Amino acid sequence: MYSEKVMEHFRNPQNVGEIENPDGIGEVGNPVCGDMMTFHVKVEDNILTDVKFKTFGCGAAIAVSSMVSEMAKGKTIEQALKITNADVAKELGGLPPQKLHCSNLGADALHAAIRNYLEKQKGAK
Ligand code: FES
After folding, report:
1. Residues flanking ligand 1, CB < 6 Å
2. Can you tell me the distance from the alpha carbon of 96 to that of 69, in angstroms, rounded to the nearest whole number?
3. What is the mean pLDDT of residues 31-56?
């Protein structure tokens, strides 16, 4: 019932962990199941040079986090903010309907980390 892409990211998730001194941190919880996802981002010259995540959640949520981190790495802030949860599910070759809520965390957590970075920038000026 899962696409090959989902299984690949679930079995071998990319960018798991934390960044030392991250420029932004975003944490979201899934109201449906209570799972949590945290994203760390490193930003240089408006580019996401590193993205790492920690997900306490189901397999689909782990695959989603891994895919989001891959999609966001190397992108500009503006490009990364345009990544939607639907884009992530599409990149993964779709998710079973009852697992679509799991993909709702991914882009949200990434965007929260970027917003955290942008807020810090504002504060620094
Ligand atoms: Fe919780 Fe999938 S069941 S994120």
Report:
1. 30, 33, 35, 57-58, 60-61, 102
2. 21
3. 95
Please list the residues that pair with 64 across neighbouring strands.
none
Q: 4-124 has which CATH code? A: 3.90.1010.10
Strands 24-29 and 47-56: unpaired
pTM: 0.94
Residue 30 binned pLDDT confidence (cut-offs 50, 70, 90): confident
Options 6, 19, 72, 102, the catalytic residue: 102
SS3 per residue for the chain: CCCHHHHHHHHCCCCECCCCCCCEEEEEECCCCCCEEEEEEEEECCEEEEEEEEEECCHHHHHHHHHHHHHHCCCEHHHHHCCCHHHHHHHCCCCCHHHHHHHHHHHHHHHHHHHHHHHHHHHHC
Pocket probe for ligand 1: among 64, 95, 101, 104, the residue whose CB has the most ligand atoms within 8 Å is: 101
